[in-house]
Amino acid sequence: MLVELLIPLGVAVVLPITIVAIVFKSVLASERNRKEIILAALEKNPNLNVEDLVKRMKKSEKLIKEKLLAKLQRGCLCCLMGVAFVLLYFFPSVQNEFLIIAGTALIAIGIAFLVGYFVGRRMLAQEMEAEQQNMKQE
Fold this sequence. Notes:
single chain, 138 residues, mainly alpha, 5 helices
């Protein structure tokens, strides 16, 4: 009885909290390391341009185009997996309600990603062009 209560509670409450805590700690450790590197560089060379150093140490963010292409890829993958699950459901030897539910959910998620891609591509066209111009200048 107690085990039946503790396992779902652990999975639904403790596990997400633990994951968030681990991610938060790793982000804090990463920021602390960056600050230590900058301070050590300043101690060795006080005439160092700090802004340039911070810019070079900055994590390279994905370009808008890369983010949109990732959405397109996820959308296509989810749609294909969903269609495969739905088609698999119609085989007499495999019929399982999970397949039709998971298949339709994956198709819906895939469509959401694809809509996000096409809307984002239209809305962010100017930003992508500006980003490309910045890349050429550097």
